[in-house]
Specification:
The chain has 101 residues and is an alpha+beta fold. It has a single domain, classed as 2-Layer Sandwich (YaeB-like fold), CATH 3.30.2310. It is 40% helix and 34% strand. It contains three helices and five strands; from the N terminus they run E-H-H-E-E-E-E-H. A five-stranded mixed β-sheet has the order 1-5-4-3-2. Strand 4 and strand 5 form a beta hairpin. It is globular. The protein starts with a strand and ends with a helix. 23% of the residues are buried. It holds the Pfam family Gp49.
Amino acid sequence: MEVKSNPSVDKFILSLEISVAAKVVKTVLLLKEFGHRLTMPQSKSLGNGLFELRIRGSKEIRIFYCFHERFAQLLHGFVKKTQQTPRKELNTAVAKLRMLT
């Protein structure tokens, strides 16, 4: 499956330490290979067509994505610092999802 990325996600990934960015790229490659079949612990459905890629390690990274037409679209990424997903980050992803549809 083809994976497309929002420019802000590319910028976010490039801002990460090399070892963390490598884990992100590895997880994105899993999304490319497995598409809709990618599940926990790498991917979680958040409902309403929104999913999160879950990258664990020294930093918890989350990248929100959706399936649009015939590809996976990476919408928004952030470093997770709390147990709960911050509402601000979720709202950003939902806004970008709405712009696609």
